[in-house]
Amino acid sequence: xxxxxxxxxxxxxxxxxxxxxxxxxxxxxxGGHDAEPNxxxxxxxxxxxxxxxxxxxxxxxxxxxxxxxxxxxxxxxxSMDARQYRVVVGEYDLFEYDGSExxxxxxxxVVHPGWTGDLAIGNDIAILRLADPVYDNGSVAVAxxxxxxxxMPHGFECHITGWGLMxxxxxxxxxxxxxxxxxxxxxxxxxxxxxxxxxxDTMVCVGGDGIISGCMGDSGGPLSCFTDGAWRVHGxxxxxxxxxxxxxxxxxFTRVSSFVDWIYTVLNYHx
Length: 271
Hints:
Residues 5-28 have low confidence and may be disordered. The chain has a single domain, classed as Thrombin, subunit H, CATH 2.40.10. By secondary structure, the protein is mainly β. It is globular and about 45 Å long. It has two helices and 14 strands.
């Protein structure tokens, strides 16, 4: 995975690897705190059997967008062999079996056709079709998505969640982390002393205060914002600075509202 390194090599991949047998390995939200159980029910742990040893490693986050589908970042996919991956929904403590989890194999990966591997070009979004549907067990829910083209004003409060790195020492959390974080509008984020030209209007910037940010292991996870009377997933973690929580270098998300037409086309085509 990637997290915009030296600005584009360690950005947003929030890669994680920490094994266990619920069989996982991981990374966390910097400046966050333990989420309450059953709060962010659309959050997914996207995992890979990286070494073909029966152990799955948390590599990225994701969002449930349908009983059969999960949305994540395209940069989280380093192999199109769906058999190497699984998703866990209803997850809370990554290293313990809570009884709320549902484990699902992936049987199809659809990467946005505009994804080139270059984070600065954008289109960092992918959809995973599951072999079997997930169901509402009290800990799982399908995310609401925004309307096409919807944006949020500067300073609007959203929430970032994930099991990404908690600090630059490499501390990884067991419990799902969350943090309130403010939107940085495109006209600010695209200024030269912020992200400049690599911040596109198909992206959402949040944070940039040097305190709260996403980090390796959070990639692909949701940006949840309360809009139009409901919690909606407005972003997919894409990239950030190499040291994660750097002033004027916000965490950057793929803007879901720019891709909702493509998302629904994929879901309808692959039913």
